[in-house]
């Protein structure tokens, strides 16, 4: 599976280079589609990882909220990086930074309840000493 | 979601580039610009469909509702 991804990405890069001379907008679109296709190929091997993680949380009866928050932030990171790297490749790093800022804010908003729990735990610890 | 999607878009790009050159050489710059615009719009339609599928997959995978 790795070899197909390596071959496919090299072909996609060569196509992007061919198209870069004549019309650069198509080279950006080809690189975006290549990213999407490679993610579609990889997705088949991501599911077992999540199954194992869900099994762990149920076995060691960890709190499910924390694990799901981590998973959500993973998804947000992936999407943000896909968009911002595409923008950086085509030379517009200003827009890329805006996308990354949005991703960071989304993750912080999502992780706020965890901060509150952390504060309570710390407060309990300090109270006991 | 298949691999020949990349080659389809590359083919459209190359055809639009060749058409652009032919039209520019024959003196019709406006048609050349319009042709490349049309090619770009066609590719954008294809890509928007794929991107919506990608977003659906990521929502289901990571539980982002």
Structure description:
The complex is a heterodimer of chains A (129) and B (65). Chain A is mostly helical. Chain A is 90% helix and 0% strand. The mean pLDDT of chain A is 89. The longest helix of chain B is centred in the C-terminal third of the chain and has 34 residues, at 29-62. The mean pLDDT of chain B is 91. Chain A binds chain B through residues 8, 11-12, 15, 18-19, 22-23, 25-27, 29-30, 32-34, 36-37, 39-41, 43, 46-47, 50, 68, 71-72, 74-76, 78-79, and chain B through 1-3, 5-7, 9-10, 12-14, 16-17, 20-21, 36, 39-40, 43-44, 47, 50-51, 54-55, 57-59, 61-64.
Given the helix and strand composition of chain B, which structural class is it? mainly alpha
User: Spans of chain A with pLDDT under 50 lasting ≥5 residues?
Assistant: none
**Percent strand of chain B:** under 5%
The total domain count of chain A is 2
Poorly predicted parts of chain B? none
* Overall geometric form of chain A: elongated
**Helix proportion of chain A:** over 70%
Q: What is the arithmetic mean of pLDDT of chain A?
A: 89
Output the keywords.
heterodimer; A: about 130 residues; mainly alpha; about 90% helix; elongated; B: about 60 residues; about 85% helix
Question: In summary, what is this structure?
Answer:
The complex is a heterodimer of chains A (129) and B (65). Chain A is mainly α and 129 residues long. Chain A has helices spanning 2-22, 24-43, 47-59, 64-89, 93-128.
Set out the fold topology.
The complex is a heterodimer of chains A (129) and B (65).
Chain A: H1 2-22, H2 24-43, H3 47-59, H4 64-89, H5 93-128
Chain B: H1 4-25, H2 29-62
